Amino acid sequence: MPSYKAGGPVKSVAALVFHLKEDFNFYIITGNKDLFSAEPHKGITSNEWNILVNGEQVFYFSDEHFSWKNLAALLKDTAYDCMYLNSFFSKRFTIYPLLLKKLNHINKPIIIAPRGMLSSGALHLKSKKKNAFIGLAKLFSLYKNLIWHATSVQEEGEIKSIFGASETVYKISNLTLPPVESRTDYSKQVNEVRICCVARISKVKNILFALEVLKGINTGTIVFDLYGPAEEADYYKQCTDVAATLPKNITVSFKGDLQGNEVEYALKKYHLFFLPTLNENFGHAIV
Q1: How many domains, the chain?
Q2: Which of 108, 145, 198, 242 is deepest in the core (most CB within 10 A)?
Q3: pLDDT, position 278
Q4: What is the percent of the chain where pLDDT is above 90?
Q5: Which residues lie below 8 Å from residue 160, measured CB to CB, with a gap of 6+?
Q6: Both 161 and 33 in a single domain?
Q7: pLDDT band at 95 (very low <50, low <70, confident <90, very high)
Q8: Alpha carbon distance 72, 66 (integer Å)
Q9: pTM for this one?
Q10: Does 230 score more than 70 pLDDT?
Q11: Residue 53 within a domain
Q12: CA torsion through residues 110, 284, 277, 198, sign
């Protein structure tokens, strides 16, 4: 799957396909652009089925081609046994399918994985908008008669606390992709530490706090490299402003995007992974 900027939810689907490809046929419907990207993915054909390396078929909708009508027609023409929604708030790929179900255009079982979006930490960000939506969704029973996929006991509790104890929730931990190779070299110099963070530059990842923590360290040589897209421009500026005020013994670099298959190679250069996140449903980068 060429997308990677959304992080964990994309890795979760990739791992699901990798481990279950011999038992299930996967048909994945998504957009033809990565998160925050203006240009479509290279090497794909938009608005047609693409067969990927593990045999999964992926339909990449372009913005121009996506509509209620086209989504409904595609689902009608696709032979599937159940639908798996890999998000809670996605307008196009969760809310639209649920509205189509509400209008009786979908009569197959639907499994939904909220991917940590119902945690208190996640709901605290843009809380008014999110709580208003959840209130309306409950009023119109948009999420009724679904099968919920929780990846932890905590997430199971979050689902039931919001939608009721009677909801059908299955707790199944995330699968992960196998590592390419093992790490063997852990050498470091005395009084020197290399730190990395692999995460979106956003409030929920608590990057600003990580930089504030470093303010109090005035000895030794510290390198702190952050890999990940700047999800929120204002927050990114706050982070760069704080980074500029750190002691001279600390070097901070915002490295930008890091594709999924590059992560473990990048990690080999560092001694410490620092991610004081406010919420992680699983944490593929940590694994």
Answers
A1: 2
A2: 198
A3: 84
A4: 58
A5: 167, 169
A6: yes
A7: very high
A8: 10
A9: 0.69
A10: yes
A11: yes
A12: negative
Residue reference for tokens 């919001």? 162
Give tens-digit pLDDT for 111-141. 999 988 888 877 887 889 999 999 999 999 9
How does pLDDT run across 181-219, given as a tens digit for each residue?
777 788 889 999 999 999 889 898 999 999 999 998 999
Is position 286 within any domain?
A: no
Instruction: Match 């190679």 to its residue by tokens.
Output: 265
Domain interval for residue 210? 192-273
